[in-house]
């Protein structure tokens, strides 16, 4: 008599595991948010820095243009152009405040021929330099030029060692209306200070607003993580219930076959044997044939109960339970190979699923493929378990094969998908069949070896 089935409600997820999963999810959210903040803030900071520099240079250009129009232009007289000492000295006196306290380090005035008509450095006055295209355009009314860089040109021999300077070229006119170029140099520190001031004034509120946004999103993120965790726990509990119900149903069918149908048929076989001995000789062949057919059916039913009634995985372990199926294949002269690591780590529910995958695939191999050899390979990599069952049988066309011939695998595939895995069947006529099942990491459960002897409602239900 088979032992009665025991029922137990699936256990809920441990509270500690749930908190750990939520904490991990929140940590990932914060990390992703920080990375996003850096990715957003970095280009924005560079953009603000560039805009601040442009703004500072624009101010330098505008102030230089005002100086040229209001101060320098009216002082470019015929006497200055003739380089009379009194005119040059008067220009020096008028521009001295800008050179001492106004932040300018160098002043030059060029005529349209590329000659320096005035400079605070006396040795430059009267020198001729090649006029570039931008200078000709500026004299014709083109835009002013402003830049922040180190000076290395020939005409900048006195500024070469001054580092970064703000160089400004604007158009002006002499007292007589002749076009002139007014050039100034000033320290780049003033631009950098203004640039830094603008950057700090804008970047701080931007970072603060992004941080506040991140914190505001943190609360719903935690709630969402807990909700997802709860749904995952519910799904796992339903999965365990589904597996338990399926195995309990198998065991119940096996019990009913063993305790009722097989027992009744066995009694009928004994009755036929008794009638065979007492009946007339002419009827013995009929009794013999009927008894043989009945005994064959009894053996078939007992084999079915063995398939429906799996071994005790807790006591035997997964590998030993699979190896117990080798006997039936050896009796049929079918090669049977197994490649299962000794340190295989699975939780209890997935150990049952692995056994069911192997069992269902082997049943299909023996019933439909006429295989000469079958093989089982189980691998674990980075928390993922892959089960492969292959044979060298007839194979089939996966597109046209009758679904009813593989109904068990279809049901098993649905169960595996609910467990977060997938089932792949590859076959072609004459090339055998390969069934591959892959399980992901276990959610909310502590993995333990499949050979553990701790109590489990699912495993107790299939004893």
TrEMBL record:
Keyword Kinase belongs to the record: yes
Coiled-coil residue spans: none
Domain Histidine kinase: 256-443
GO-annotated cellular components: membrane
Spans traversing the lipid bilayer: 29-48
Database matches in Pfam families: HATPase_c, HisKA_3
An example molecular function term from Gene Ontology annotations: phosphorelay sensor kinase activity
Regions of compositional bias (Polar residues) in chain numbering: 442-455
Keyword Transmembrane part of the UniProt annotation: yes
UniProtKB keywords: Kinase, Membrane, Transferase, Transmembrane, Transmembrane helix, Two-component regulatory system
Annotated InterPro entries: HATPase_C_sf, HATPase_dom, His_kinase_dom, Sensor_HK_TwoCompSys, Sig_transdc_His_kin_sub3_dim/P
Region (Disordered): 442-463
Highest taxon listed in the record's lineage: Bacteria
Protein name listed in UniProt: Sensor histidine kinase
Organism: Arthrobacter cheniae
Highest classification ranks of the organism: Bacteria, Bacillati, Actinomycetota, Actinomycetes, Micrococcales
């Amino acid at each position: 008599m088979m032992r009665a089935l025991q029922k137990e409600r699936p256990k809920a997820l441990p509270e500690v595991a749930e908190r750990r999963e939520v904490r991990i999810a929140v940590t990932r959210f914060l990390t992703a948010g920080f990375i996003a903040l850096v990715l957003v803030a970095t280009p924005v900071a560079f953009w603000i820095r560039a805009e601040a520099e442009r703004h500072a240079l624009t101010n330098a250009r505008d102030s230089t243009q005002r100086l040229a129009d209001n101060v320098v232009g009216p002082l470019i007289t015929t006497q200055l152009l003739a380089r009379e000492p009194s005119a040059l000295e008067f220009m020096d006196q008028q521009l001295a405040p800008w050179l001492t306290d106004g932040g300018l380090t160098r002043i030059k005035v060029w005529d349209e021929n590329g000659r320096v008509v005035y400079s605070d450095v006396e040795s430059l006055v009267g020198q001729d330099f090649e006029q570039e295209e931008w200078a000709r355009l500026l004299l014709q009314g083109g835009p002013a030029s402003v830049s922040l860089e180190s000076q290395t040109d020939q005409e900048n021999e006195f500024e070469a060692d001054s580092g970064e300077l703000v160089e400004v070229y604007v158009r002006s006119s002499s007292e007589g209306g002749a076009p002139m170029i007014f050039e100034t140099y000033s320290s780049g520190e003033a631009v950098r200070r203004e640039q830094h001031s603008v950057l700090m004034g804008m970047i701080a509120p931007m970072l603060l607003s992004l941080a506040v946004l991140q914190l505001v999103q943190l609360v719903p993120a935690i709630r969402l993580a807990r909700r997802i965790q709860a749904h995952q726990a519910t799904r796992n509990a339903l999965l365990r219930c589904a597996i338990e119900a399926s195995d309990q149903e198998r065991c119940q069918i096996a019990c009913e076959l063993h305790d009722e149908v097989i027992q009744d048929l066995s009694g009928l076989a004994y009755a036929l044997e008794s009638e065979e001995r007492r009946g007339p000789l002419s009827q013995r062949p009929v009794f013999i044939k009927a008894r043989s057919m009945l005994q064959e059916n009894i053996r078939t039913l007992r084999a079915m109960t063995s398939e429906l009634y799996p071994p005790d995985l807790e006591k035997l372990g997964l590998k030993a339970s699979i190896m117990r199926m080798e006997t039936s294949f050896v009796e049929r002269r079918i090669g049977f190979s197994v490649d299962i690591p000794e340190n295989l780590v699975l939780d209890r529910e997935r150990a049952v699923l692995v056994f069911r995958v192997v069992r269902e695939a082997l049943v299909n191999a023996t019933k439909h493929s006429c295989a000469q050899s079958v093989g089982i390979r189980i691998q674990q990599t980075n928390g993922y378990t892959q089960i492969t069952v292959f044979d060298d049988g007839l194979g089939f066309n996966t597109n046209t094969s009758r679904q009813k011939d593989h109904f068990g695998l279809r049901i098993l595939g649905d169960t595996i998908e609910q467990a977060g895995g997938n089932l792949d069947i590859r076959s072609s006529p004459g090339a055998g069949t390969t069934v591959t099942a892959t399980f992901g990491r276990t959610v909310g459960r502590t993995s333990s070896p499949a050979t553990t002897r701790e109590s489990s409602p699912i495993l107790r239900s299939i004893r």
